[in-house]
Specification:
This protein has a single domain (19-97), classed as Winged helix-like DNA-binding domain superfamily/Winged helix DNA-binding domain (Arc Repressor Mutant, subunit A), CATH 1.10.10. The chain has four helices and two strands. It has helices at residues 20-33, 42-49, 53-65, 79-97; strands at residues 4-7, 10-13.
Amino acid sequence: MDLFTKSKRGLEMKIARRDKMKIYNDLLSILQSEINGEEVILTRLQLKLNVPFDRLKVYLKQLRELDLINDETSPKLTKKGKQYIHEYEKVLDFMKRMGLKYQ
């Protein structure tokens, strides 16, 4: 896969798009790694996830509605959120064993 593309301005790097399942997993994994008793700072979360702040708010709202986190302003993983991460890893492992590629 070519990581660069030619444009009028020169070489530009292609950025792989993530689907919603991957974004949810990335966000939940970041939250899980941030567990150290401190309040989660949303701007730090935004930077680690590499999404615009308004989109982060949408994702947090969706995760709350799915009961994967407990709060949108100071998110913490629920039991269901931890299970999501575990099941997502199992799906990736299965796909790898089947010889299928997933971003």
